Amino acid sequence: MARGRDEGDGRLWRVRSSTPDQTARLGEWAGEASRAGDAFLLHGPVGAGKTVLASGILRGLSVPGPHPSPTFTLVRTYTGRLPVAHVDLYRLGEGAAGEDLGWDDLLDGASVLIVEWAQYLGPWTPPDGVRIDIQPATASARRLEWRALGPGGLRVLAAARRGAAAGPTAAMERAVEQSRRRTAEAEGVEEPS
After folding, report:
1. Is the separation of the CB atoms in 147 and 130 below 8 Å?
2. Strand partners for 75
3. Where are the domains of the chain?
4. How far does CA 152 lie from the centroid of its chain?
5. What kind of architecture, by CATH, is found in domain 5-182?
6. pTM assigned to the model
7. What pLDDT digit, counting tens, does each position of 100-145 carry?
8. Are strands 12-17 and 5-7 parallel, antiparallel or unpaired?
9. Is 31 exposed, middle or buried (0-12, 13-18, 19+ CB in 10 A)?
């Protein structure tokens, strides 16, 4: 994983991940630093890795997997280290995130909020959090642009930077492998021998 580069006042960080596991690990570092009221606003095309990043955030919040995208249910709630609401707005489209979805309840400040297709939030976009734009670079590599929207976003962004700066370690690689195996077991997928 590239270490990324900071831009300007530290509110913008660009990083490249080489694999889905690295993308998930970035999310995990951010999730570990999360507090109640934090918001992760995920942007990117279909297949960019929003759900992979969201799953990493959920793991960082100690939410047992698997973590499927709530594309058809719209909202999944979890209890880990903190309550979490995972929202997918893909099916709703532009401007549909309002009162009908119970947005005021989701923004109560007691939960961590993860929103896939956050570009559809419009006026419901939280004032603080971190916006993460994910773009495919190759079949497995991704370019991620993290933008802090307020003090909570700065804190989460700093934690993800620290994790990436530490670089890959044997312990981190083992943790990624263990997580992959747990997810495969939970989904009933046999591991190749």
Report:
1. yes
2. 87
3. 5-182
4. 15
5. 3-Layer(aba) Sandwich (3.40)
6. 0.79
7. 666 666 667 778 999 999 988 877 788 889 999 999 999 889 999 9
8. antiparallel
9. buried
